[in-house]
Write a structure and sequence with these properties.
- 2 copies of one chain form a homodimer.
- By secondary structure, chain A is α/β, with parallel strands linked by helices.
- The first copy, chain A, folds into 2 domains: 51 residues, Spermidine Synthase, Chain: A, domain 2, CATH 2.30.140.10; 220 residues, Vaccinia Virus protein VP39 (Rossmann fold, 3-Layer(aba) Sandwich), CATH 3.40.50.150.
- Helix content of chain A is 30%, strand content 32%.
- Chains A and B meet through β2, α9 and α10 of A and β2, α9 and α10 of B.
- β2 of chain A pairs antiparallel with β2 of chain B, so a sheet runs across the interface.
Chain lengths: 282, 282
């Protein structure tokens, strides 16, 4: 008897659908904010889906998490205190904690269900949340940056798409507060969407952050399981330039276990294709 | 009445499926070698599919075609005669012909049906095949490079996957002949597959070409409609180094209509992630 293939489908913008061969559904829950799902696939390990969109796959999450963390953390001369907004799966925290200078990594995730599901089903990323240097707050990141009196050397905005619970993470008042809580050499890296499919997100985020920070660059990387593969981060600092102030030698001496990021990739990820340069007015 | 969405599906390695929303099926034929199909999609323009695999989408073909052509053509000091093996859709030829130094571009495509279908349904790429500098030969590329007495400054291997009609284009005797027909500053760029899903193809091609050419590098780029997005070319030369011998100023003075490639991208595309460096022994 031939088994029929069952797929986990993500329809994006109504025009493209990405499907992963399903082995087993592990978890499905609904929080106040969104639906949270974990499935086991045949070729991509476990997948975390939020409102039906793939957030993490065990097979390739290393790329996203290395690229949202290391360009910022290797640029900052000595990152001690790091704040992650969103990223309840824990993958970004795992990469942050690879830096020995980091004394504490605070995760502010709005949805406790994301953290719970990840802790239970995706230890590959979530184990880092139990590190003694990790502090997990289930709270609204927008409110947190508005109210906290703490300061941070690096802030990482590891958000979902710019609608639903994450909408305000793409606005100017959020970034004004991020600037306020950043220390002198502060850097903020933010998930910015697909250059192919949602260039307006990148344009808006670039425009907003450029009004607030003296240095803003866009960085690109590859995500196997996100629609179209190509994905962007914006990268804003209080003065450090991601290329001119970057010391490649630090990456080598750190001897970190990395699979994607290296000094060449750091330099390369800020090179933008012509159509994207035009879109952001470069 | 709500219409049911119809998708054009590509299943890859049995584990991932990419689907594009269908508007209209335009052409389906079968040649001696393979099935050839053209469809109109809702979000990606027209698609050319060979044996059910997306080869070209009107929306993003510019990336693939710019990246397989321009790193080689801007590295070579004055490319006059160019050979394209495969690439019957014409997109690579279109990019080659943007270089004013090019006097002739010979396309050797094994399957006349690919050229016919492209000419009829995808003029965006195929129009270039009617340029007075284009010469289209429906013939076996492996045989062509073995027998021709012509020489070329740049050879581009714009092939399908390393099985079926294209299998021999990934072997050593083909590359020995390519070297033989290349002029002194010769460069050959070749489609090499997905670093995520078929790293063995890149490893093999790198190994084979390294035995034949003094300089071999791997270059990466992004393809919206190929599985996983990230794609690779190998880049072999008779001596020129793709970075050290590249003159960025030539790109600016050429004032070419380009949407992806620029001098920054040229430098960046040869930066490889750690896992790929390890795989090819770098």
């Amino acid at each position: 008897m031939k088994m029929r293939t069952v797929w986990v489908d993500e329809v994006y913008q109504g025009i493209v659908r990405t499907s992963f061969k399903l082995k087993k559904r592990l978890f499905k829950g609904k929080s106040h904010f969104q639906s949270v799902e974990v499935v086991e696939t045949a070729g991509h390990g476990r997948l975390l889906l939020i409102d039906g969109m793939t957030m993490v796959s065990e097979r390739d999450e290393f790329v996203y998490h290395e690229m949202i963390a290391h360009p910022a953390l290797f640029l900052h001369p000595k990152p001690r205190r790091v704040l992650v907004i969103g990223g309840g799966d824990g993958g970004t925290v795992r990469e942050v904690l690879k830096h020995r200078s980091v004394e504490s990594c605070t995760l502010v995730e709005i949805d406790g269900l994301v953290v719970e599901a990840s802790r239970r089903y995706i230890p590959q990323t979530a184990a880092a949340l139990s590190d003694r240097r990790s502090r997990v707050l289930i709270s609204d990141g927008v409110k947190f940056v508005a109210e906290t009196e703490e300061t941070f050397d690096v802030v990482i905005v590891d958000s979902t798409e710019p609608f639903g619970p994450a909408a305000e993470l793409f606005g100017p008042s959020f970034y004004k507060n991020v600037k306020r809580i950043l220390t002198e050499d502060g850097v903020v890296a933010s998930q910015a969407g697909s250059p192919f499919y949602e260039i307006s997100t990148i344009k808006n985020l670039f425009k907003i952050t450029t009004k607030i920070f003296p240095v803003v660059e866009v960085c690109l990387f590859n995500n196997l399981t996100y629609p179209g593969g190509l994905w962007a981060f914006t990268f804003a600092t209080k003065g450090l330039h991601p290329l001119k102030d970057f010391r490649a030698s630090r990456v080598k001496t750190a001897k970190m276990p990395l699979r994607w990021y290296n000094a060449d990739i750091h330099a390369a990820c800020f090179a933008l294709p012509d159509f994207l340069k035009k879109a952001i007015g470069r």
